[in-house]
Amino acid sequence: MTEPDDPDLTVDEFVDYCRTQAGLLSGHIETIGTEADELLDEIDAEMVEIREQLDDGDGSVQRTSAPESTAGPDEPEETGVDVAALEEREADLASKQKLVEAKQARMRAYQDLAAGYTALAGELESEAGDGQAAMTRVVEFEAEEDAPAYFEEQTVLEAAVESADDNGEA
C-alpha cells in the first residue's frame, strides 16, 4: 500500500478503494446468506421428519380421541413417540435457529458497512479536495465503523496506524 504521507495519493484511488471494500463485503454477504439458507433448509427438513415421526407414532396427532390406556398404574403407556428424542431434536432446531438469526444479524452489519463505503465513495468524489483529505476521511470512517473487524486484508486505517507506529507517532 502507498505510504500515507505520499503526495501522489489521489481521490480516485480512495473512491476505488471504497467501492472495492463494498464489493468485498457484498461477497461476504452472499456467502453468509448461502450458509443461512442451508441452515434453513436443514431446519425445514428436520421439521418434516419430526412431523412424519409424530404422524407415524401413536396416531394421536391425527385423531381427536385415543383409546384409553390398557397399561396398569405402574406400567408406562406406550405412545410410539420417543419424547426424549423429540426434545433433543427440538433443542437442536432451536440452536440452528439461533445460528440463522446470528448470521442474519451479521449480514445486516455487513450490508450497513457496504452501504457506508458506497456512500463514502460518493462523498469523496464530490467533496474531497485531494488525496490526503480523502485518506483522512476514509481513516475516520473505518475507525468509526470498526471496519478492520470485517476484513482479513489490511484496511487504510490499519495501514495508517502501522505507518504512524513505524514513524514513532502514537
List keywords for this structure.
0% strand; 170 residues; mainly alpha; 69% helix; single chain
SSE blueprint:
Layout: H1 11-56, H2 83-127, H3 131-145, H4 156-166
Helix pairs in contact: 1-2, 1-3, 2-3
How do you describe this structure in short?
By secondary structure, the chain is an all-alpha fold. It is 69% helix and 0% strand.
Topology as H/E string?
HHHH
- In this structure, how is the largest beta sheet organized? none
**Which bin fits the share of residues in helices?**
55-70%
Low-confidence stretches: 60-66
* Structural class computed from helices and strand pairing: mainly alpha
Number of helices: 4
How large, in whole angstroms, is the Cα Rg?
28 Å
Shape: elongated
Mean pLDDT: 84
**Residue fraction in strands:** under 5%
Total number of beta strands: 0
Distance between the termini: 20 Å
Structure, described:
With 170 residues, this protein is mainly α. Helix content is 69%, strand content 0%. The protein contains four helices and no strands. The protein has helices at 11-56, 83-127, 131-145, 156-166. Helix 1 (11-56) runs antiparallel to helix 2 (83-127). The two termini are 20 Å apart. The model is unreliable at 60-66 (pLDDT under 50).
